[in-house]
């Protein structure tokens, strides 16, 4: 048996550092929001025989009144252009201008997205609402599911701990994406929010299994201390926790490495989230229960 | 210990065998349903190799792919409902939806999706065109839809001018005044009045004659003009501009004359000498004499109203106002000028009949022969936007059945004839009925193209648009545009996402490939770690995948890159339930139970965990489903569906397969589950 509960201070410290780092990163660099949240237009062009230099493209953009746009070459003859939202006329004008400028280099527009400010502010609002709703729903559900376990720690505390662990699980991928956004320009869009919410659901999923085991053990034998019961429960569920996360991670890795561009960072978010989630269910969630119990009894 | 009713402890061998057989059949059926092409290819290959023919299966239902996999366009239009009453907004937006759908149907896209959506106060129309090659064509087609509205005069009082507008008005009129002043200056320097008038006067009625008005008295509208030249010599121009409500005048006096004017009323009794009159001369005369006997100044008006045959006498009471010599027929004139004031004449015969004349008074007036040059002022109503004067009637392009090029019967010029549908016809009848002798305006794309006066109630649902500058071509074009669908409200494109078809295919291939690889690795892992049960679980997992895919085809569920990711994710999570169960079984085995009992115990104890943990994922999925982006919703639906099916397959199918297998495997076999003591 591994003494996880006994060594809990180490895990608290580790998590504490990582969470603090994430918060610092978020405060320092902020998230890099994609056009879903800021509004704007995104054009992806595929060139068949060589692509123009970014400087040339910027010239065309400037001549169309689209100064301040960003041109990003994507490798294998692909170009990504970001501008402010475009009306159909502006869009056509830009394509025509680019065609004229590139001359012999032919291209096709494989993707075009324009999102006006009303839509993007709506998406922002909706995302925030959803996150709030999910958190609330989870707390309520957990309190209800564990209602039969009121001793020695009341059921709503299980719910609260699960949520705190959840926040921990969410902050880490968020921090990672702030880094990615700052150094590699990876953006946050609605799929990112979706991935985060899935991670939340999954993280709780995992925590519940451990808590359930604790509940069962508590029902069965009241002879051992709370601390020992919890430790025992964790140990018996480690295999299960790791295996389920493992299988999910396998498919996610497969998606990340082999899947298309659109779901790449989506799967990455979930990989990080689920990894951290598993770690926290084992090393943080249950030990927190013990800590709380100790605080309660030492009052 | 929580137990559900359908988890009996063990079943008879018969039930187990039949259930397993059923599972096997289910696998084959779903497999064929989901991948008929694969089967058909295999059958064809078999036939070519061995001449052994298997029946082929028609590929009935294909998978439904979303935009990002099929390629296509997703557009969101916002409808401007600010000018429409809240109660009518829904109908108007539905009208827009219908019109857009009509236009989009003509583009050759299979199954276009056009939906309305309300977000807060804003009405939107969402258009999804999967597989469209030329998005520009679509945005053009939709964007070109003209906005046709019928409006009636609003009884809302015209709004007051804003300060800005008042300033503007003042400035404009000052300009005009300066202009008039300049012209006056030119005349004073010696330019001919007539010429300046012909070129510059804004009084269309007189400018042709060099601005000549003729002889007028100093009363009525011209009083100010006359006053300005009363005391001047003949042939002189008023030294200053005369400002009136209409504008700034330059006045020229030609001459004056003095005349006698008589103020009189009369009663006319017509005779049959006048066409349309049936009274015989003798009768008319008798009547006239009778009236003469009765007539007195006090009752003259009443008698005139009652008996006078003059058209309009009922209203005018025979009052002729003031007139000078030369306006009436000779007999009349001679008589009336000879009469004394207050006198009523004896019946006097003229070609019109018998007259009784009541002379009220006579006076001498001076008349002035003048000319003027008018430079108009801009009035308030010229600046106020037209729209404020007009109110919507609810009759718009969406009730239009047909528009056609036509030609005016009388002038031969090109017009557009409109035919409304039933609803439009009734609306139009009501509108014309309540607006008889008033203006009704036809607005196209926000400006009035025609403002006819309604003469009668129109009940046949037809109307005509005639514009001053319609050519045959422009009228024809308008009819075409209207036919293709006229919108009741203006719309703007606020969001657009297009994905090229080739990109979509690439994403699909990659997602499927990733899914397959992931699946195979998971299966491998399961077999290695859990051995025989792992194999069973893998089979169960395959069935799970087939069932879920079959559901996707049947419902159908639109597959996007995100929803395929959701499916792949749920495959990973489906394993979860199995793992939970197996770990439990291992424990029970380690505790010393028989294989049979361990399995049953394992399943029932694991149930609480399975339920609890999957519910939390389901909660998230349900909340996500309420997000309006189709991409996110697709992910949530596949996730939720996957979770349901995975619970089913893990708990039911795995269990029966396990029960089946252990019928043939020795009890207490630890190795078989990979358990260690």
Radius of gyration of chain A (CA) equals: 25 Å
Q: Biggest sheet of chain B, in brief?
A: 6 strands, antiparallel
Distance between the termini of chain A: 30 Å
Global geometry of chain A: elongated
Mean pLDDT of chain B: 80
Total strands of chain A: 4
Please summarize the sheet with the most strands of chain A.
4 strands, antiparallel
Give the oligomeric state of the chains in this entry, treating copies of one chain as homo and distinct chains as hetero.
heterodimer
Structural class of chain B: alpha+beta
Gyration radius of chain B, in Å: 47 Å
Count of individual beta strands of chain B: 17
Count of DSSP-assigned helices of chain A: 9
Distance separating the two termini of chain B: 26 Å
Q: What is the share of helical residues of chain B?
A: 40-55%
Q: Of all protein chain pairs, which has the greatest interface, and how many residues does each chain bring to it? A: A-B, 68 and 73 residues
> What fraction of residues of chain A sit in β-strands?
5-15%
Q: Tell me what portion of residues of chain B adopts beta-strand conformation.
A: 15-25%
Structural category of chain A: alpha+beta
Label the overall shape of chain B.
Answer: elongated
Structure description:
The complex is a heterodimer of chains A (299) and B (677). With 299 residues, chain A is α+β, with helices and mostly antiparallel strands. Chain A has nine helices and four strands, in the order ααβαββαβααααα. Chain A has helices at 8-29, 35-38, 54-63, 88-102, 117-145, 155-184, 190-220, 226-258, 261-297, and strands at 40-47, 70-75, 78-83, 107-115. In chain A, strand 2 (70-75) and strand 3 form a beta hairpin. Chain A is elongated, with a radius of gyration of 25 Å. Chain A starts with 7 loop residues before the first helix and ends with a helix. The model of chain A has no long low-confidence stretch (mean pLDDT 80). By secondary structure, chain B is of the alpha+beta class. Chain B has 20 helices and 17 strands. Chain B has helices at 13-34, 36-50, 67-70, 86-105, 135-143, 163-189, 193-200, 204-207, 223-229, 281-294, 300-307, 313-316, 330-338, 380-383, 422-434, 472-483, 501-554, 561-590, 595-625, 630-662, and strands spanning 72-79, 113-119, 122-130, 148-153, 212-216, 242-243, 247-269, 319-324, 348-350, 353-376, 390-396, 400-407, 414-420, 440-444, 447-450, 462-465, 491-499. In chain B, the strands form four sheets. In chain B, strands 5, 6, 7, 8, 9 and 10 form a six-stranded antiparallel β-sheet that branches. In chain B, a hairpin with a 6-residue loop joins strand 12 (400-407) and strand 13. In chain B, helix 18 packs antiparallel against helix 19 (595-625). The longest helix of chain B has 54 residues, at 501-554. Residues 1-8 of chain B have low confidence and may be disordered.
């Amino acid at each position: 048996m591994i003494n996880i509960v006994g060594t809990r201070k180490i895990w608290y410290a580790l998590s504490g550092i990582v969470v603090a780092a994430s918060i610092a990163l978020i405060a320092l660099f902020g998230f890099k929001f994609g056009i879903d949240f800021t509004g704007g237009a995104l054009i992806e062009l595929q060139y068949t025989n060589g692509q123009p230099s970014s400087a040339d493209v910027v010239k065309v953009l400037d001549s169309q009144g689209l100064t301040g746009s960003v041109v990003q070459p994507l490798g294998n003859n692909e170009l990504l252009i970001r501008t402010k939202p475009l009306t159909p006329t502006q869009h056509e004008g830009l394509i025509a201008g680019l065609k004229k400028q590139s001359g012999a280099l032919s291209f096709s527009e494989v993707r075009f997205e324009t999102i006006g400010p009303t839509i993007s502010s709506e998406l922002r609002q909706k995302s925030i609402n959803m996150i709030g709703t999910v958190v609330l729903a989870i707390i309520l559900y957990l309190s209800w599911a564990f209602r039969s376990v009121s001793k020695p720690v009341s059921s709503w505390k299980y719910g609260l701990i699960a949520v705190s662990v959840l926040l921990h699980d969410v902050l880490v991928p968020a921090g990672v994406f702030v880094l990615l956004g700052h150094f590699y320009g990876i953006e946050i869009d609605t799929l990112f929010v979706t991935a985060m919410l899935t991670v939340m659901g999954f993280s709780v999923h995992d925590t519940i299994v451990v808590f359930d085991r604790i509940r069962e053990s508590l029902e069965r034998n009241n002879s051992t201390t709370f601390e020992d019961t919890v430790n025992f429960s964790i140990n018996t569920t480690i295999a299960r926790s790791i295996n389920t996360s493992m299988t999910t991670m396998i498919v996610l890795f497969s998606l990340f490495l082999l899947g298309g561009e659109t779901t790449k960072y989506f799967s990455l978010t979930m990989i990080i989230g689920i990894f951290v989630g598993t770690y926290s269910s084992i090393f943080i969630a249950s030990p927190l229960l013990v800590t709380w119990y100790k605080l309660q009894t030492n009052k | 210990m929580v137990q559900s009713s359908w988890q009996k402890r063990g079943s008879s061998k018969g039930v187990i065998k039949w259930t397993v057989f059923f599972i096997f059949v289910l696998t084959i059926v779903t497999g064929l349903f989901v991948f008929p092409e694969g089967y058909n290819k295999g059958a064809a290959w078999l036939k070519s190799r061995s001449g052994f023919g298997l029946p082929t299966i028609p590929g009935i239902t294909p998978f439904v792919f979303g935009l990002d996999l099929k390629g296509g366009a997703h557009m969101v239009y916002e409808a401007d409902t600010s000018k429409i009453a809240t109660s009518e907004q829904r109908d108007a937006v539905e009208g827009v939806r219908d019109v857009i759908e009509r236009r989009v149907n003509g583009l050759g896209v299979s199954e276009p999706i056009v939906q309305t959506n309300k977000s807060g106060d804003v009405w939107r129309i969402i258009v999804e065109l999967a597989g469209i090659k030329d998005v520009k064509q679509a945005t053009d087609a939709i964007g070109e839809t003209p906005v046709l509205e019928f409006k009636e005069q609003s009884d809302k009082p015209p709004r007051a001018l804003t300060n800005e507008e008042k300033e503007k008005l003042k400035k404009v009129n000052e300009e005009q005044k300066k202009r008039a002043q300049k012209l006056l200056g030119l005349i004073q320097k010696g330019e001919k009045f007539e010429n300046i008038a012909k070129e510059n006067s804004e009084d269309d009625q007189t400018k042709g004659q060099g601005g000549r008005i003729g002889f007028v008295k100093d009363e009525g509208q011209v009083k100010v003009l006359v006053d300005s030249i009363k005391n001047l010599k003949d042939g002189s121009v008023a030294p200053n501009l005369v400002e009136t409500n209409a504008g700034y005048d330059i006045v020229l006096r030609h001459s004056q004359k003095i005349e006698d004017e008589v103020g009189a009323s009369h009663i006319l009794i017509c005779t049959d000498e006048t066409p349309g009159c049936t009274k015989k001369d003798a009768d008319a005369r008798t009547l006239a004499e009778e009236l003469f006997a009765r007539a007195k100044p006090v009752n003259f008006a009443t008698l005139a109203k009652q008996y006078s045959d003059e058209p309009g006498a009922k209203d005018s009471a025979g009052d002729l106002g003031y007139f000078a010599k030369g306006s009436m027929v000779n007999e009349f004139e001679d008589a009336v000028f000879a009469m004394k004031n207050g006198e009523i004449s004896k019946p006097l015969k003229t070609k019109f009949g018998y007259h009784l004349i009541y002379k009220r008074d006579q006076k001498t007036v001076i008349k002035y022969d003048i000319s003027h040059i008018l430079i108009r002022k801009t009035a308030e109503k010229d600046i106020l936007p037209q729209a404020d004067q007009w109110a919507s009637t609810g009759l718009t392009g969406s009730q239009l059945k047909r528009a056609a090029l036509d030609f005016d019967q009388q002038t031969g010029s090109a017009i557009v004839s409109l035919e409304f549908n039933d609803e439009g016809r009734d609306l139009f009848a009501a509108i014309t009925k309540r607006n008889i002798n008033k203006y009704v305006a036809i607005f196209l794309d926000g400006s009035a193209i025609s403002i006819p006066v309604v003469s009668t109630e129109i009940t046949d649902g037809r109307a005509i648009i005639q514009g001053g500058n319609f050519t045959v071509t422009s009228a024809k074009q308008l009819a075409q545009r209207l036919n293709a669908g006229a919108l009741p409200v203006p719309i703007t494109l606020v969001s657009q996402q297009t994905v090229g078809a080739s990109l979509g295919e690439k994403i699909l291939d990659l997602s499927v490939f990733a899914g397959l690889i992931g699946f195979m690795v998971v299966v491998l892992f399961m077999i290695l770690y859990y051995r025989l049960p792992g194999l069973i679980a893998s089979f169960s997992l395959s069935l799970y995948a087939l069932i879920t895919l079959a559901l996707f085809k049947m419902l159908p569920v639109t597959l996007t890159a995100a929803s395929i990711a959701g499916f792949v994710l749920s495959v990973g999570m489906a394993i979860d339930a199995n793992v939970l169960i197996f770990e439990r079984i291992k424990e029970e085995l380690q505790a010393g139970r028989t294989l049979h009992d361990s399995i049953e115990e394992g399943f029932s104890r694991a149930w609480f965990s399975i339920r609890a943990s999957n519910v939390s994922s389901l909660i998230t999925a349900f909340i996500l489903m309420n997000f309006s982006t189709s991409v996110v919703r697709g992910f949530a639906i596949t996730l939720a569906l996957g979770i349901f099916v995975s619970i089913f397959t893990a708990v039911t199918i795995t269990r029966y397969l396990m029960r089946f297998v252990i019928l043939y495997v020795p009890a207490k076999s630890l190795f078989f589950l990979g358990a260690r003591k």
